[in-house]
User: What shape does this take?
Amino acid sequence: MQIGAAAEASGVSAKMIRHYESIGLIANGARRDNGYRDYDQRDVHELRFIRSARDLGFSLEEIRALLDLWRNKARSSRDVHSLAARHLHQIETKITELQAMAQTLRQLLQACHSDERPECPILDGLGGTAIRGVHC
Amino acid sequence: MQIGAAAEASGVSAKMIRHYESIGLIANGARRDNGYRDYDQRDVHELRFIRSARDLGFSLEEIRALLDLWRNKARSSRDVHSLAARHLHQIETKITELQAMAQTLRQLLQACHSDERPECPILDGLGGTAIRGVHC
DNA sequence: CAACACCTTCCCATCATTGGAAGGTCAAGT
DNA sequence: ACTTGACCTTCCAATGATGGGAAGGTGTTG
Assistant: This one.
C-alpha cells in the first residue's frame, strides 16, 4: 500500500502522514526498494485513530499521549479517562468563551438599525467602553 | 506618549502595536527625534477599538474592514451590521462544532469505567469505526 | 559614570496544515 | 523506444496571532 492509498483509506492526507512521521508521531515505517513508503492495515488503523482524535479536537501532543496508551497493553483506563476529561474541559471552556462573544455580538447587532445611515452602535460599542469586561 | 504607555492604556501589547503597524492595520505614526514612536489619545482609542474587536473574535482582516468603516464618515451601518452578522455566524458554527465534539467525548467518557484495567471504550472508540461521521 | 528602564529592528517559535518546486519511478498508450 | 501522466520523494515556505529574545540605542536617576 502506497502513501496515497493509505491516505485515502485513513482520511489523513499524504502530506500529513509524512509530517506525522517527521515529528515522530508515527514510526518511520517500511520502505520499498524505490524508496516509497509502504503501509499495511495496522498502519491505516493507527492513522484512523489519529484522524478520529483530531476530529475530536485533540492536539498532536495529546494524541501522542493517547497513542502511547493505545499501544501500551498495561495501561489503565483511568489515564485515558483523565486525558479525555481534561480535553473535554478545555472544549467546554472554549464553548463558554465563544458563547459570551456571540451574546455580546447579538446585543450589538440588535441595537444596530442596519440601514444607509452612518450611525452605528456596533462601531460605537467597539470604540467606546461598552464592551469592557469581555476579555476573552 | 511612548509605545509602552499606549500599550498599557489600550490593552494591546507593544509587540502587537508594532506588528499592527508593520502589516498596515494602523498607520505609520509620528516619531520623535530619537526614533521612538509617539502616540496620542486618538491612537489609543483606535488601539482599544482593535482590542475590543479581537476580544470578540474578529480576525485582523475583518478588523481592517471594520476600521475602514469606522474611519469613513459616509459609511452605512448596514455594511457594519452585515460584517458583524457574518462573524457571529462563524462563531455560532464553531460553537456547534465544539458542542458535537463535547457530546461525543462525554459519551466516550461515560462508557469508560476509569480504573486500573486496560480495557477502554475511549481508545476503542477512537480506533474503531464508532466515531465515523463526526468529521469536524 | 554606572545602573536601569525604556526604546529600536530583526529573527525565530508556536500549531496544524497546505502549497509548490524540483526531481525520481512506474505503468500504459502511441 | 518514447512520451504522457500519475504516482512518489525531499525541502522550503506560507498561513494567523502572538510571544520570546538578541543586539544595540536612548534617557533619567543616583
In short: Chain B touches chain A through 56 residues (CB under 8 Å). Chain B has two domains: 1-75, 77-136. Helices of chain B lie at 3-10, 14-22, 41-55, 60-71, 77-111, 121-127.
